[in-house]
């Protein structure tokens, strides 16, 4: 294992900058916000730690990139900024997200609520779910894993056409695996930052995807024409567990972060770290490091205390007595399902520690 450790001065400059205007901007932040963000360059901090690399296949090793500090983010002429008339994040579900209509509807509401808290201050709206056929996308069966896949680029074109006037961005979510081009095996997601659109799949986040007993394998693709989408009528959907929900929340917020102009983080353990594989994505925390938190706060203008309180509220809402997973077969007339929150327990404890620092 390798630890990526930067000097205190490097982290301080990455966070605050040496530009007098940006330093002055930082000094005008609430005292509690400065106290929390200053944890970035405290060696003994138990809130923000260094990035750890576990293999040569990890993102930083295999995808060398120039790091982005706050000043570079602030000065980027191409980054997208929400405005009063473009202040909404839209979520478009493609195909069913759960084994029943109730599970599918609740799942997307959980993601909507999480995004509202994470991007605190922006509106998050749901578009009516659409079947795969509505996108007119290409599709295939993966030769290696024998599962259904839809073409990410085609979905992006569909989303761009559907983007509402007041949208800061529109993101598609699906439980069907994605591929970006014929030569690629798969992709977790794909986005166009200039168009403010993205598509993300949670198919590989199910606990059984990489197991021999995976039920989503398709023996042969039978289609009478390019417009025959009948194979998607009863496609396999993984069980919605707490871990799958956590992984979905991570992917959704990481990718929307890119649409805000946040590049992959190379400073501290952070949601905005790149990930090459599921194991690395699971090591990545839900929280932003102080440098990326300042970037997002600069873009949206939220109070850090209010944002953290909203995240705790989201975890606490409807989570009492939550089972480990949603039932595979629920009666359609069931009421609201409880959110499976076990996987978020440690993060809630971490947020409460941050609130203690903020409110000293």
UniProtKB/TrEMBL annotation:
Coiled coil: none annotated. Probable zinc metalloprotease. Pfam families: Peptidase_M54. GO terms for biological process: proteolysis. PANTHER family: ARCHAEMETZINCIN-2, ARCHAEMETZINCIN-2-RELATED. The keyword Metal-binding applies. This is Archaemetzincin-2. One of its GO terms (molecular function) is metallopeptidase activity. Keywords: Hydrolase, Metal-binding, Metalloprotease, Protease, Zinc. The lineage of its organism: Eukaryota, Metazoa, Chordata, Craniata, Vertebrata. Belongs to the peptidase M54 family. InterPro entries: Archaemetzincin, MetalloPept_cat_dom_sf, Pept_M54_archaemetzincn. The keyword Iron does not apply. Its cofactor is Zn(2+).
């Amino acid at each position: 294992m390798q630890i990526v450790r930067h000097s205190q001065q490097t982290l301080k400059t990455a966070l605050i900058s040496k530009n007098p205007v940006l330093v002055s901007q930082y000094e005008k932040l609430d005292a509690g916000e400065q106290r929390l963000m200053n944890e970035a360059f405290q060696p003994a901090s138990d809130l923000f730690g260094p990035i750890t690399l576990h293999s040569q296949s990890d993102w930083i090793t295999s995808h060398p990139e120039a790091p982005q500090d706050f000043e570079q983010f602030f000065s980027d002429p191409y980054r997208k900024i929400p405005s009063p008339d473009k202040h909404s994040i839209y979520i478009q579900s493609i195909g069913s997200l759960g084994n029943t209509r109730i599970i599918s509807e609740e799942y997307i509401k959980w993601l909507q609520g999480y995004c509202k808290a994470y991007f605190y201050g922006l509106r998050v709206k749901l578009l009516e779910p659409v079947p795969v056929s509505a996108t007119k996308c290409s599709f295939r069966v993966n030769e290696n894993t024998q599962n259904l896949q839809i073409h990410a680029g085609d979905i992006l074109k569909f989303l761009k056409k559907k983007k509402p006037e007041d949208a800061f961005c529109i993101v598609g979510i699906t439980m069907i695996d994605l591929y970006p081009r014929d030569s690629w095996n798969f992709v977790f997601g794909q986005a166009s930052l200039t168009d403010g659109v993205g598509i993300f799949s949670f198919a590989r986040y199910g606990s059984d995807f990489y197991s021999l007993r995976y039920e989503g394998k398709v023996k042969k693709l039978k289609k009478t024409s390019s417009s025959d989408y009948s194979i998607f009528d009863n496609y396999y959907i993984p069980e919605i567990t707490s871990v799958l929900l956590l992984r979905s929340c991570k992917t959704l917020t990481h990718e929307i972060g890119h649409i805000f102009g946040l590049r992959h983080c190379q400073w501290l353990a952070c949601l905005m770290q790149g990930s090459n594989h599921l194991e690395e994505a699971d090591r990545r925390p839900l929280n932003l490091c102080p440098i990326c938190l300042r970037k997002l706060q600069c873009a949206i203008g939220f109070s850090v205390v209010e944002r953290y309180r909203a995240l705790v509220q989201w975890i606490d809402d409807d989570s009492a007595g939550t089972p480990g997973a949603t039932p595979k077969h629920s009666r359609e007339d069931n009421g609201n399902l409880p959110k499976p929150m076990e996987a978020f327990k440690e993060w809630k404890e971490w947020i409460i520690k941050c609130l203690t620092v903020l409110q000293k």
